[in-house]
């Protein structure tokens, strides 16, 4: 809808103005201690990009923390307070800013400097005095590469059918959250979710309807998990899984019950189900803490198995229920 609105806006403009309204202008941060340099670059780039300016490394580090972060940074190598190398290093230490491409600007145009610039993580190197068209082309290339990297990384982490995180993403986050829970001595919970008699659903309504049902269930799961750190993913087939950091067994059982009810209340017809005449879920819950690990029988690594055992009990005792 936003795109359509922008398109409309473009068509309403006189032709000469149309070019100026770019769809989502990308943000470029120019960092240089010389105002002359920042001005020159800003003037050249302002037509096509949103420009941010910093005259010191310290200011630059403050600006990159803003949301939305810049899409690309032009960074002077020699500045009095903090060198470009140092600024670059800091930006790459932060998870939220490490993917921003950095291009070094420098008068020190010898191969050795260029090599150490690239080594410190910059994507490119431009020497002063600037050849403006060349600068523009480099910026365009690196913004395009960044865009494709983002698409690639989202695609790798997302389930194509339901558009929720996939198993790969879940396993990655599980490893991170296990480390966090150990460090902070917190409880981590997992909920395994399986649609009841889904083979019969496909047999009755066909695979396309089955796909629609999976999408509806995934949406309901996503809506039911409200805490920022919670994650719901598609495990495989008609199975989903939730990761609940800093949540004990009681809390997780409560969330699981909410999920069960949410999908039941969708009232998606399932006439061949022996449970109810609508789509239902079976769920298994398990929790882990660091103190469990001392007893050797329980550990974070066994969480998935424990949740699976609980899920099997839900299936065996009649389905459409939560087992802990
Ligand atoms: P239970 O209550 O014991 O879980 O029975 P079930 O039929 O749900 O379990 P089963 O493992 O026998 O069958 C799972 C079915 O899920 C088999 C398959 O047809 C269906 N399925 C798996 N992935 C997809 C998918 O991407 N789309 C559709 N439409 N169906 C799928
Ligand atoms: Mg300088
Ligand atoms: Mg299954
Ligand atoms: Mg099933």
TrEMBL record:
Domain annotation Response regulatory: ranges: 27-143
List each copy of the GGDEF domain by range.
Answer: 186-324
For the modification 4-aspartylphosphate, the affected residues are: 76
Q: What does this protein do?
A: May play the central regulatory role in sporulation. It may be an element of the effector pathway responsible for the activation of sporulation genes in response to nutritional stress. Spo0A may act in concert with spo0H (a sigma factor) to control the expression of some genes that are critical to the sporulation process.
Name-wise, this protein is: Stage 0 sporulation protein A homolog
Source organism lineage? Answer: Bacteria, Bacillati, Bacillota, Clostridia, Eubacteriales
Of the intact sequence, the residues represented are 386 to 709 of 712
